[in-house]
Amino acid sequence: MKVVKFGGSSLASGEQVKKVYNIVTSDPDRKIVVVSAPGKRNSSDIKVTDLLISCADKYLKNEDASDIFGTIIDRYHSIAKELHLSNDIIQTITDDLLSLLNGDKSNPDSFIESVKASGEDNNAKLIAAFFKHQGLDAHYVSPKDAGLLVSNDPGNAQVLPESYERLYELRKKSGIIVFPGFFGYNETGEVVTFSRSGSDITGSILANGVKADIYENFTDVDAVYAVNPNIVDHPKEIRELTYREMRELSYGGFSVFHDEALIPAFRAGIPVNVKNTNNPEAPGTKIVNERENTNGPVVGIASDEGFCSIYVSKYLMNREIGFGRRLLLILEEFGLSYEHIPSGIDDITVILRQNQIDEKLEDYIVKRIIEDLQADEVKIVRNLALIMLVGEGMRQNVGTAARASKALAEANVNIEMINQGSSEVSMMFGVKEAVEKKAVQALYEEFFVRVMV
Ligand code: ASP
């Protein structure tokens, strides 16, 4: 049995939905189809999920939302029209959305959650209607009926372990199941969504629950590329990755597959195949437990910007027991989550996403660290980019860091910091955002283009 998930761009128009139908029907093992909400049809388009969030926001503020409501319904309508579906399905979607929007707003978070999740929920109904219209034995299944229970953490739900056993029951259902991605229900029966792009997570949970043979994740690229194609033209496609490599790359900035989506599939040992809806014959990228190490130490290079570092220096820091804990305690007090902590004898740097800290908070934190920890120097540096070199092969290879720093030096890139994770699957370089592209291009050249002698 295969679980297949289709992302928003694969469902953005009737033409795309027909491709989805062809993919599903070309393989009788494709029994569970997880769908996103309609995504962008072109780069200037707006995702239905974003429209829904704005619409819910307007309702909360008692502002006129008729335009945006109309735009949302039009999106479904144009898809249904292209697929020659009757107006019944549009009526169902309109009624559902209206009843959500006019529903209880006493808890704004939970109101937004249910409106936001309706994008996938109604799209799943539409896709099921189309499959039926084509003569398939297909059914929409609600996450509530299937028992997909999640924690009560709006916009960041985590699956509850008891879900898996319940989801196993889906195996008994006949025909094709069309299942909305992106959300589950908390213990009191309210909708709670995963983090953005979370339909990948639903697919992985379902694959684990039904003990699928494979989880196929259909998107709009032929494969996971070794580097961001917006930075390097026509980068190398990656054929095979381990779960850990994919997790590191997704975390490092690869958006093709959600970084939280690997765990459920990994726990059940289910391989993931990232494929292209627009070119389903292409082999795509397989994510597996172990791979043959044939292609050098580095499998991919991810990069992301928007980081800042808090540099703290104090003479004899290495001898002061509890220094690190007290520093992190200050960050915890402000609800700040950190990403990396490279350290030296007398200094430590904490790297965080900078959108968590505005200037006022920055001043306050610096003052607190100086006062509470009697630090000699505290400095916050903004606008950093983190570049991750990822590859299981780095473990067996000597000299990867040397090659990387040489390539960066030759490109005249100053390295602000280096951190090698203890797993040795990734190596992180912090650079100024302004030189991010140049740095990534130099590293790509070194590890993927230059032939070693
Ligand atoms: N539609 C949701 C989002 O835009 C979830 C998804 O597409 O996976 O984040």
TrEMBL record:
The molecular function terms of the Gene Ontology recorded here are:
aspartate kinase activity; ATP binding
Where is ATP annotated to bind?
A: 5-8, 219-220, 225
Tagged with keyword Nucleus: no
The entry's cellular-component GO terms read: cytosol
Domain of life, source organism: Bacteria
Query: Could you list the residue ranges forming a coiled coil in this record?
Result: none
Give the reaction(s) catalysed.
Answer: L-aspartate + ATP = 4-phospho-L-aspartate + ADP
- Which residues are recorded as binding substrate? 49, 120
Q: In which pathway does it act?
A: Amino-acid biosynthesis; L-threonine biosynthesis; L-threonine from L-aspartate: step 1/5; Amino-acid biosynthesis; L-methionine biosynthesis via de novo pathway; L-homoserine from L-aspartate: step 1/3; Amino-acid biosynthesis; L-lysine biosynthesis via DAP pathway; (S)-tetrahydrodipicolinate from L-aspartate: step 1/4
Gene Ontology BP term (one) = threonine biosynthetic process
UniProt-listed Gene3D superfamilies: Acetylglutamate kinase-like, Aspartokinase, catalytic domain, VC0802-like
Name the EC number(s).
Answer: 2.7.2.4
What are the UniProt keywords, alphabetically?
A: Amino-acid biosynthesis, ATP-binding, Diaminopimelate biosynthesis, Kinase, Lysine biosynthesis, Nucleotide-binding, Transferase
Q: Which family does it belong to?
A: Belongs to the aspartokinase family.
What is the role of this chain?
Catalyzes the phosphorylation of the beta-carboxyl group of aspartic acid with ATP to yield 4-phospho-L-aspartate, which is involved in the branched biosynthetic pathway leading to the biosynthesis of amino acids threonine, isoleucine and methionine.
Protein name per the record: Aspartokinase
